Amino acid sequence: MNRYLLPVIFLLLPFLTACTGFSPVYAEKNGARSSFSSIQMNEIEGRTGFFLNQEMLERGGIQTGNSGKYQLDIELSPSRLGFGVLSDNVATRYQIQLTANWVLRDKQGKPLTNMTASSTASFASPANPYASQVAEKDAEERALSALADTILDQLGFYFAANRDKQ
Fold first, then answer.
1. Distance CA 144, CA 138 (A)
2. Domains of the chain: which residue ranges?
């Protein structure tokens, strides 16, 4: 009897999960996802800011401007750290860390929530300067993609937790 019970439980497990009201943050008909379309964010200066704006638009549909129901203000702080130092004091690997302090405001400018998101990517620095620049830009773009995902996850959790207040 026990030997037949375990497979039946595993077959019914997905249906039990569906009954709990679980829905992914990035689902099309999710309340958090529909709230993303009413957010507009400040335009972040610089190359990294431009790419973060693009990632937020592509991944969450959040556009730049200031006429949305919600305003997202992001302050981006990039840093670069060399490690893997050779005997002649030249770094062979670098780590790029991006930190974003963000504030979500309502139409009147009242802060609703604020958080900090960060992401890190590393790259090897070959002797060729061109290859080193390409590796650095690639690492920066990977860090920006991860940072955008983190910010969108944090926003999704906020909207999911405050669904009844909207």
1. 10
2. 23-165
Q: Which of 117, 118, 47, 120 is nearest to 83 (CA)?
A: 120
Q: Of how many residues is the chain composed?
A: 166
pTM above 0.85?
no
Answer for the pair 62, 33: CB distance below 8 angstroms, yes or no.
no
The span from the CA of 76 to the CA of 103, in Å, is 12
pLDDT, tens only, 60-119: 888 888 778 899 999 999 998 887 777 676 678 889 999 999 999 998 989 999 999 999
The helix/strand/coil state of 51 is helix
CATH number for 23-165 (one of 3.30.160.150, 3.90.870.10, 1.25.40.10, 3.10.20.310): it is: 3.30.160.150
